[in-house]
Amino acid sequence: SIGSSAFYNCEDITSIVIxxxxxxxxxxxxxxxxxxxxxxxxxxxxxxxxxSFAGCTSLKDVxxxxxxxxxxxxxxxGCKALTEINLPNSLxxxxxxxxxxxNGITEIVIPDNVTSIGYGAFRxxxxxxxxxLPFVGYEEDSINSxxxxxxxxxxxxxxxxxxxxxxxxxxxxxRSSIPSPIPMNLIGTLN
Length: 191
Description:
Layout: E1 15-17, E2 24-25, E3 38-40, E4 47-48, E5 61-63, E6 70-71, E7 93-94, E8 107-109, E9 116-117, E10 130-133, H1 150-153, E11 189-190
Parallel strand pairs: 1-3, 2-4, 3-5, 4-6, 6-7, 7-9, 8-10, 10-11
């Protein structure tokens, strides 16, 4: 594994290719490497830890491992240069605020194997135009649409005012029924 805080604040690193022997990128491993532009994870990397790449403001390209199962909390928080993320089919868990403030991202496709998306995982993605989710679920105590999508975007529908722009763009391709209306203009497709 790459140890915790191993390259923390290394501002001169511009690219990283993780060797195949590495299965884990530990917490804070590359946090605040502000010149880092590209990362290629090893084909054997299964886990990206807490805040591993947080604050890497120049990060544009991440080649995710086809073995990746977990993206930890805050893993890519503040990586504002990211414009796309191609998550592998092996992915199962996306942590709390994992992609918070990656406001260059315009599209997200969540693989079918993902069974857990943490609170606010996609908070602050103000350029997001579409998201494809493998499931739509509720919190146990959810009584409205807050439990459906507000959880992963960290918003409350009660704080949104309806307008022409916030009227539903949701397709009718749900795996589960969703209460209406959901005032989200960010959602493209729900599988």
